Each structure stands twice: as C-alpha cells, then as structure tokens.
Amino acid sequence: MNANVMFYLLLATVLGLALLCVKPLGSYIADIMEGRPHFALRLGGRFEAILYRLSGVDASKEMSWRQYAIALLLFNLLGALIVYALQRLQLVLPLNPQKLTAVSPDSSFNTSVSFITNTNWQGYSGESTLGYLVQMAGLAVQNFLSAATGIVVAIALIRGFARHTVQVIGNFWVDVTRSTLYILLPLAAVLALVLVSQGVIQNVDAYKDVTGVSATVPTQTLPMGPVASQESIKELGTNGGGFFNANSAHPFENPTPVTDLLEIVAILLIPFALTYTFGKMIGDTRQGWAILAAMLILLVSMILVAYYSEQHGNPLVARQGIDQVASHLQSGGNMEGKETRFGIAASTIFAAVTTATSCGAVNMMHDSMTPLGGFVPLFLIQLGELAPGGVGTGLYTALIFAILGVFIAGLMIGRTPEYVGKKIEATEMKLASIFILTTPFIVLIGTAVAVTMTAGKAGVANPGAHGFSEILYAFSSAANNNGSAFAGLSANTPFYNLALGLAMWFGRFWPIVAALALAGSLASKKRIPVGEGTMPTHGGLFIALLIGSILLIGVLTYVPALALGPVVEHFMLVAAR
After folding, report:
1. Under 8 Å CB-to-CB from 259, ≥6 apart: which residues?
2. Nearest Cα to 296, choosing from 15, 564, 74?
3. CB neighbours of residue 321 within 10 Å
4. For residue range 114-165, what is the model confidence (pLDDT) as tens digits?
5. For 103, what's the count of Cα atoms within 13 Å in the CB-facing half-sphere?
6. Domain boundaries, the chain
C-alpha cells in the first residue's frame, strides 16, 4: 500500500476511535464529578464513604478556591516526599530482585517532582535504576494521582463558569477520589488487560538471561516487571514515563502495531472527552464542540507538517549515496531513530499526539527527526499542550485562551467581553495573563541560564543550533509538564536535575493556582443573559479567534528562540541540498 494512503488511514482511525468516545465518556465524567445518580456511584458509594470516614473528610462541605488550592498543593507535596523516600530506601525494600541501590539525591528530587507534576521526565534508565516496588508504589501511583489532579482543576474551572454568586468550587478530596476511583482506575484496568493480551509483560520476576542471536552476543539479559499496569495509566493519564529507557519503542511496552494504535488513542481519550464534559456541565454542549474543533485543527495541521517532513528524508544522507533515488530523497523517508515495526506514519502521529498532550511517551527518537519534523513536537509543547492537551490541563488551558480570545474581540468592538454567561473583567484578565506568561518565562529564562553556564553546556552532545534545540526542548518539556526530550542532552546531572525539577514544579503549580483563583472569581459572578451584543462562542468565527489567540501568543513568545534552533537548522539543511 502507498505510504501516504497508509498514513491517512491510520490518522483517520486514530481520530475516529477517539472521537467516538467523546460524548459517552465526556457525559460519564460530568455525571461522576457532579455526583449525579449513576450506577458507578451507587456501586462504589459505600467504599467511597469508608475512605472519607477514615481520612476525616466531610464530603458534603465544599471549599473556596484558596482552600481547594491549599489542599491540592499539600496533597502533591506529600506525594513528592513519598516518591523521594522510596527511591532513597529502595535497596532495603522488597520487590527489588536485581538489588538496585539507592538513587542519588538530585536524581531522586528530579524524579519525585517529575511524577507528581504529570511530567514524567526521566534522566535515568528505568530498568537499571528503579526496583518494582518503587515503580508500582511510587511512580505508578503518582501516574494516577497527577492525572487526577489535572482533572479536578479542569472540573473546578468548569464549575466557575457553571455556577453563579457562590464562593465555593467543590471539594478537592471528593473530586480527586472520584476521578481516580471511577474514571482512571476502570479505564486503566481494561487497557492493561488488552495490552497483556497483545504481549505487554506483567510480572515481578527477576531479569532473564537468554541465549543470544549471534556468536558475538552469547547471552542477553531481558528485563522483566509489572509493565502493562503502568503502561495503561501512563497513556490514559498523559503521564508518559516509561518502565524501560526506550519507553514505548520497547517491545515489552509496545510490541505490535495494534498496541501502538491503542496507546495513541488512549492518550487522546480523556482530553477529547473533557471538552464534552465542559459543554454538559455548563448546559451548552456546542461550547465544548467548539473547543474540540479548535484543538483538532491545530493537532491535524501539526501532524501533517511532521509527516511530510519526515517522509521526504534527509538530503545529507541521500548525498552519501545511501538509498539514493530521484530528487536526492530517501525512498523510505527519514527512518533514523524510528522503529521499523511502526514506520514514519505511526511514529510521527505518536510524536505529535504525545507532545500536543502532556504525555511525553515516545515510540521513536525525537532527536533524530528532521529540523521541521523536530520543530513540530517542540512547538506543540510550547503552545501550552492544549491541542488537546493533557488530562485536565488541556481543557483548562484552552478555556483560559478562550477568555483571552473573547477579551480581544471585546476590545475590537468596544464591548465588555463575555464568555458562556460570565463577564470577563480586569481580575480575570490578570489571572489569565499570569497563567499564560508563567511557562514561557520559566522556559526562556531557564534556557538562557543553561546556555551561559558550563554545567548547562556540558550535557550537550551536538554543537551549534541542534545543541541549542536540545536545551530549549528540555526546558520547554519540563515547564509545560510534557517529559519527552531531544535525548542528545545528558540531563542526569546535578545542574539539570535541579533546574528542570524547579521548572517542572513551578510550571505545574503556579498556573494551577491561577486557574483555581480564576474559577473562584467566575463562580462569584452573576450570570449574564445572552443579548444582541453577545458574541456567539460556538461557531466558526469563535474557533478561528481561539486558534488565532493560541498561535499569536505561541509565535510571538517563542519565535526568537525557535529561530536559533530548529528554524536555522532547517535552512542549513536546505542550503546543503
């Protein structure tokens, strides 16, 4: 079959399967998070009540945005301390058949922050660094809880739009329990069983020594572990941390084209569905479809750029007489760093999806992409990962850009801007500005510091423009809580472990506090009835305005840095043709 036909079929299948689940899953999430009568709540209600009783939580008492934010921060701080302790003590812990030793303090700090912020940046090789108990009780648990944290912030912001003249936005403890118990756990359990049926391993055995395939490699050690259970929530929760160093390129994590397809769909599942949750909770599902349409346009556009760039190959390779055909292109495209099991189509779709969300899982080496191909995941991360973004984070980021869009439109026509029945005033714009400017500030300052310090430049394997791209990608990935990397950068050093750890922490929680404050401000406002001067926010004009606002901020903020990295690399490649 023609390569382009295969690509379009795969893309249509991925998007089709994900979109089929938007309405049923989005409706289910809305019912669960609002406590509406539902079979799942009746089934788990008694267990849920026991959890509240044991923890001293009054499920009937709602919180102000400040109380909600404090509870969220303390909860995640406790999670970070637990993961840090598990890494430092792992030599004396059970389920460590390889007797792996304690992780260094700086690496433990980085990993702890990474997994509680939903970033899952890994400066270490999983199969040679962490024992099974740390993987399960530390990393896998935080895969659930960090994803739940993103969901509850999105739900709190939706309540800000849906409610009026109130001072409360929900109960954090109830929200995080329900999002974990009724949404993430069931989906992850089902996906884990499907992955096991396709060959993903799930055990706690010691590593296996097997006969090698050649005389030069007489034996080979195969790592084992409880992989499927972590793989499922890693994708569904848009976490991305791999059990193995090769992540989703490893055959024990992603053995077949079927598992590859399922993992891509799983990454998109909840971020897509939450747009319908938004529409249902505010009483106008058209608003959710409009947000989803903007996300899809951005995502598909970037996938196409990445695919055609990779499919055309690297002219510098072709000039060496390697697989040379007409026009000096490689007949198979740029296959460097890609799995032959998946090829360019599945690899570029995975790369775009994992960076358009906050997942960061990889089934290829992003560092080996062409300059324009590598530009796509970097740019998608820098846009704020809202096309469709991570679990929860994508929706609340898109809603804040929607607020920015209607504010710009209001300035154009000289009217006070409104969005879904709420007047957007100075307080909302200040909070939205803090939210939007936080991550670019962290990314650009962090990159500037790294390229001027010896410790920052020491980890760069490639000099020149690509080395700058590697550093820029690292801070973009950390501050936007993605976790993927241009892996030519050796980041498991005290400098990068500390710098990227701080970028992950502030890049996650500073915007979250701003989003919760915005939710509280909106919830306290009166609802404004639709009038003749109200701008419709569910049609094509609004979708174009939202996309324009997203691109305007993304391009103007990062274009100087991008010009020094992937853009100049591309022109260098063009000049060499």
Report:
1. 195, 198, 199, 200
2. 15
3. 7
4. 999 999 999 888 889 999 999 999 999 999 999 999 999 999 999 999 999 9
5. 31
6. 21-208+222-283
